[in-house]
Design a protein that fits this description.
Number of domains: 1
Order of helices and strands: HHHHH
Number of strands: 0
Largest sheet: none
Structural class: mainly alpha
Strand content: under 5%
Distance between the termini: 8 Å
Radius of gyration: 19 Å
Number of helices: 5
Shape: elongated
C-alpha cells in the first residue's frame, strides 16, 4: 500500500476524472435498468398480460450501446493513473482490486447479461405480437438477465466504493 500522496490537480485531470465518473454512472444506470426491466418482464410473463410500451421498447433488437459505456471506466482510469504523477499506480492494492472487479463485471456482462438480453430481443418478437406463449428459454433468459444485472450492479457499487475510499 502506498502512502498518502498529493491529490493530482488541473483541468485536464478534472475532465478525465469527470469522464471516468460519467462512465461509472452510465454503467450503474444501465445495469439498474436491465435488472428492473428483466424483473418486470418475468412478472409480465407469469401473469400473461400484454407488455407495456416501455418493455417492448427496451427489448427492441439492437446492441445495448449505453451498457458498453462501462468500457470507458478502465480506459479513463488508466489515463488518470498516467496523469497522476505517481500519486496513484497499478501496484496500489485498491487499483488492482478495482481492475479485478471490472474484469468480473465485463465477463458477467459479455458472458451472461448481454447474451440473455439479445436472446430475449429475438424471443419476444412473436410474444409482443401475441402470436404465442413463452417457452422455458424465455423465462430462463429473463431470470439470467435479472440475476446477472443485479450481480453486476453490486460489483459496480463495490468498485465505486473502493475507488472513493482508496484504502
Amino acid at each position: 500500500m502506498s502512502g498518502v500522496h498529493h491529490q493530482p490537480q488541473g483541468p485536464a485531470f478534472d475532465v478525465i476524472l469527470l469522464l471516468h465518473v460519467i462512465c461509472v454512472f452510465v454503467g450503474l444506470a444501465t445495469v439498474v435498468t436491465s435488472a428492473a426491466t428483466a424483473t418486470r418482464l418475468r412478472r409480465l410473463l407469469a401473469s400473461r398480460v400484454a407488455f407495456p410500451e416501455a418493455v417492448v421498447r427496451y427489448f427492441h433488437p439492437g446492441v445495448n450501446w449505453a451498457g458498453r459505456a462501462m468500457y470507458g471506466i478502465p480506459v479513463f482510469g488508466f489515463v488518470l493513473l498516467a496523469m497522476s504523477n505517481g500519486a496513484y499506480a497499478l501496484r496500489d492494492g485498491w487499483v488492482m482490486a478495482g481492475l479485478g472487479i471490472f474484469a468480473a463485471v465485463t465477463l458477467l456482462a459479455e458472458g451472461t447479461l448481454w447474451p440473455a438480453e439479445r436472446r430475449l430481443q429475438i424471443s419476444l418478437v412473436p410474444l409482443v405480437a401475441g402470436n404465442c406463449t413463452p417457452d422455458e428459454s424465455v423465462l430462463r433468459d429473463a431470470k439470467v438477465m435479472a440475476l446477472s444485472a443485479t450481480v453486476a450492479l453490486l460489483l459496480l457499487i463495490a468498485a465505486s466504493a473502493l475507488m472513493v475510499a482508496q484504502p
